[in-house]
Amino acid sequence: MSYAIKPLSCDPARVRGMSERMIISHYENNYGGAVKRLNLIEEKLAELDYATAPNFLLNGLKREQLIASNSMILHEVFFDGLGDESEPGAALKEALARDFGSYDRWRRIHRHGQGARRRFRLGAVDVVAA
Questions:
Q1: What is the pLDDT of residues 67-78, one digit of tens each?
Q2: CA distance linking residue 27 with residue 12, whole number of Å
Q3: Alpha-carbon distance 2 to 41, whole Å?
Q4: Does residue 96 contact residue 125 with C-beta atoms inside 8 Å?
C-alpha cells in the first residue's frame, strides 16, 4: 500500500502562535518524511520472503512500520487541528465545565500556560495541571 502526503488543511499564515515558516517546514520535513519513510518500509516488506527472512529483520521492519505509521497519523491529526480560533461545541464545553469547573476556568488555565512554556496540542483539549 502506498501512502500519499495529504494537503495542508489550513492557511499557515493565519495560525496564531506559530510562524508560517515553522508550520511549512514541519509539514514538509517531519510529516512528509514520515510518509516517505512509511512507503519505503512498505516496499521493503513487500520484497521480503517471509518464509526465509530472519526474524530480527521482519521484527525490525514491522517495528519501524508501526513507528512511521504512528508518526504519519499523529501529524495528520495535528495539522487538521490547526486553523482559526473558534469556540468548542456544546458537548465539549460541558465536558470542560465538568472537568475544570467551567469553560472560562479551562480557558484561563489554558491561556496562562501558553506563555509559560512551549508545547504542541493534539485536538481541542490541552490537559494541564490545575
A1: 999 999 999 998
A2: 10
A3: 10
A4: yes
Tell me how far apart the alpha carbons of residues 66 and 68 are, in angstroms, rounded to a whole number.
6
Task: Output the pTM of the full model.
Answer: 0.67
The Cα-based distances of 79 to 15, 71, 99, 102, 119 in angstroms read 11, 12, 26, 28, 14
Q: How many residues does the chain have?
A: 130
Residues 67-119: tens digit of each pLDDT:
999 999 999 998 888 877 667 788 988 999 999 999 999 888 877 655 444 44
Look at the block and give the residue holding cell 510518509: 35
Record the cell numbers describing residue 53, joined without a space: 527472512
State the Rg of the chain over Cα.
19
